[in-house]
C-alpha cells in the first residue's frame, strides 16, 4: 500500500514544526462553481414537482366530490338534532346515505334488526343494536326516545356517516 504523504518528505520531524511550515503556505483555492437553473436537471425536477402537485390536487378534488353526500347528510342531521318531532328522520337520512354508498339493491330491503346490524357492520365503532328496542319502538310505534336515546342516535348517526366503508 502506497501512502500519498510520506513523513520523510518533511524537513521537520515533530508536529509543531509541521504546523509552523504549513501556516505560512498559501492554500490553493479552485475557481467558484457557477450556479444556474439553466441545466436540464432543474427542468426535470420542476416538471416532476409540478406533476406531483397536480396529482395531489386531482385526488383531493376527487375525494371532496366523492364525499359530498356525507357532508350533506351531516348537515341535515345537525338541522334535525334540534327538532324532537322530526328526530326519526335521522333514520331516513341514514338509509339515503347508505343507498348512495352501497346501492339500492343491498340496502333497500333492510329494516329492523337487519338494518341496525348493517349500520354496525359498515360503520366503525357504531352501536345501534344496544338500544335496538328503544329505536324500533320509536320508529314503528311512534314512542318518544329518552334523552339518552336521542343523544346516542345522533352521535352514532354522525359517527356512521363519517366512518362508513364505501363498499362491503
TrEMBL record:
Transmembrane segments: 40-61
UniProt keyword Transmembrane helix, yes or no: yes
Keywords: Membrane, Transmembrane, Transmembrane helix
Pfam families associated with the record: DUF4381 (PF14316)
InterPro entries attached to this UniProt entry: DUF4381
Designated name of the protein: DUF4381 domain-containing protein
Species per Swiss-Prot/TrEMBL record: Echinicola arenosa
Lineage of producing organism: Bacteria, Pseudomonadati, Bacteroidota, Cytophagia, Cytophagales
Amino acid at each position: 500500500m502506497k501512502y500519498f504523504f510520506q513523513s520523510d518528505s518533511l524537513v521537520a520531524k515533530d508536529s509543531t514544526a509541521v504546523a509552523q511550515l504549513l501556516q505560512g503556505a498559501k492554500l490553493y483555492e479552485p475557481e467558484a462553481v457557477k450556479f444556474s437553473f439553466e441545466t436540464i436537471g432543474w427542468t426535470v425536477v420542476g416538471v416532476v414537482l409540478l406533476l406531483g402537485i397536480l396529482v395531489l390536487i386531482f385526488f383531493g378534488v376527487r375525494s371532496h366530490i366523492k364525499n359530498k353526500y356525507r357532508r350533506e347528510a351531516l348537515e341535515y342531521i345537525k338541522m334535525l338534532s334540534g327538532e324532537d318531532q322530526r328526530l326519526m328522520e335521522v333514520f331516513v337520512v341514514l338509509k339515503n346515505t347508505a343507498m348512495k354508498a352501497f346501492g339500492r339493491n343491498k340496502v333497500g330491503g333492510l329494516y329492523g334488526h337487519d338494518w341496525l346490524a348493517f349500520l354496525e357492520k359498515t360503520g366503525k365503532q357504531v352501536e345501534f343494536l344496544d338500544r335496538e328496542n328503544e329505536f324500533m319502538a320509536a320508529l314503528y310505534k311512534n314512542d318518544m326516545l329518552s334523552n339518552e336515546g336521542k343523544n346516542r342516535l345522533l352521535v352514532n348517526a354522525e359517527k356512521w356517516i363519517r366512518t362508513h366503508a364505501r363498499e362491503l
